[in-house]
Amino acid sequence: MNHLIDIKSISKEEIINIINLAKEFKNGKKESDVKAKTLALMFYENSTRTRCSFEIAGQKLGMNIINFDANHSSLSKGESLKDTIENLYFLGVNAVVIRHSLSGIINNVMSQVKYPIKFINGGDGTHAHPTQALLDYYTMLEKIGSVENKKITIIGDVSHSRVAKSNINLLTKFGAKIHLCAPTYLQFENFEAFNVTYHNDVKSAITDANVVMVLRVQNERHDKEGYPDSSEYKRLYEIDSKLLKEYGAKDVILMHPGPANRNIEVSSELLDNNVGKTILEQAQNGVYVRMAVLNTLLKGDSNAS
Ligand code: CP
Questions:
Q1: CB neighbours (10 Å) of residue 195?
Q2: Would you list the domain boundaries of the chain?
Q3: Which CATH class is domain 130-279?
């Protein structure tokens, strides 16, 4: 594994290795192989969990972390992303984590950069968020042991969701039964190309589900595109304790990649009770999964600049 751009590009074996390594880091059984290597965090779109957990992961591994400030960098003077990253490589940076609103921009810049810096996708547009899918899978394994033949329901704004796409790509590799639920205007385009079952109705979607993964209604994208307002979404799709208890499997777990819109896609009472705590555990597991990703990509890497 040279870079981490999307789940499609990595094998089942590579995913298992990352999960096992994350487990070792979490249990304190593994030492860092990447001490003193340098990681640059290049976030062109806002983030709390991904950015902070990469920073904490790097710190726990003894790495040097550069919080690249896009607003105060020479990008504002017209420097390209390719030139910026090549300069960072010559400053001694081993890897970059990029978050960007444009789908595919990381593949695009990676194909232009001539030097062996490692690329990690921290979420690009509606394309992919591979470390989110890895930490979600890790959390599911902790909670339910295996995803094989389990019903995993992803509810919400699947049309704009890089998290949904990365999770579908990962979980289907491990035999999960994926169910998507969204109003027609937030439906995944060409979902028929994926091995999923589609529901308009929330009750049928969560019936006997082992995992209910709720996605954020991405209001910032809808405002520009003339979608119905979120009160209509709330009326039909908001998940609360009563729905989950009545329709979900006996030990159903609730997940959400965050950030959550309280009382829109998920009720505040559910977020704050014990079932909602899994969402915080997802964020916590993100640190160990990202440690595993950094250690895997950078072990043995030498920036010869
Ligand atoms: N889940 C996730 O990507 O959260 P952030 O946008 O806060 O990083």
A1: 11
A2: 12-129+284-298, 130-279
A3: alpha beta
